Amino acid sequence: MRDWLTGLGILVALLAASWALLILLARRLPPGILRDLAAFIPDCVTTVRRLRKDPRVPRRAKVAVLIAGLWVASPVDLIPEFLPVIGPLDDIVVVALALRYAGRQVPREVLMAAWPGEPRLIERLLGDSSHLSRQGR
Q1: Whole-number CA gyration radius for the chain
Q2: How far apart are CA 41 and CA 7, in angstroms?
Q3: How confident is the model over 35-52, as pLDDT tens digits?
Q4: CA distances for 80 relative to 25, 40, 89, 126, angstroms
Q5: Exposed / middle / buried, residue 94 (Cβ in 10 Å: 0-12, 13-18, 19+)
Q6: At a CB cut-off of 8 Å and minimum separation 6, what does 38 contact?
Q7: What span, in angstroms and rounded, lies between the C-alpha atoms of 69 and 135?
Q8: String of b and e for 100-116 (b: at least 16 CB within 10 Å)?
Q9: 54, 35, 63, 53: which is closest to 121 by C-alpha?
Q10: What is the mean pLDDT of residues 109-118?
Q11: pTM of the prediction?
């Protein structure tokens, strides 16, 4: 039993170290689409946490973003994460669909306030946002 726990501890430490390395490397990416994609999932996780706690968000939208958050956190993937470029694609698609659904259920200003990243990314995901710039987000 002790050997199993030691192995599990080593596995968790290696996983945490690999995440830290990926975060460090992602911060060194030049501005552009790759950097935006690297920041997309962490921004989505933050948005999910914020929307879950907001009383203005309907229950069905909270359920949708919670399912998306669980999907991202789940070790089971349709496309394994270790595949370059397409590995996180299923996570991105599920989160994008959940956020689009929430975008139809939640006032846009609530969703925009919950989004910590570059506003143009969430605006592009949600669709036409020409009226947002006039509202003074």
Answers
A1: 17
A2: 29
A3: 666 677 788 778 888 888
A4: 20, 18, 9, 27
A5: buried
A6: 26, 29
A7: 29
A8: ebbbebbebebbbebbb
A9: 35
A10: 88
A11: 0.57
Q: What is the DSSP letter of 75?
A: S
Q: How far is CA 51 from CA 64, 89, 137, in A?
A: 11, 23, 17
**CB contact set of 79 (below 8 Å; sequence gap of 6+):** 86, 87, 89, 90
Tokens representing residue 81 in the block: 């994460």
**Lookup: tokens for 86:** 């397409």
66 contact partners, CB below 8 Å, separation of at least 6: 48, 52
Supply 116's token pair. Answer: 């910590």
In angstroms, the Cα distances linking 34 to 18, 29, 90, 105, 135 are 19, 7, 16, 29, 30
> Tens digit of pLDDT for each residue in 73-96?
777 766 676 666 677 777 778 877
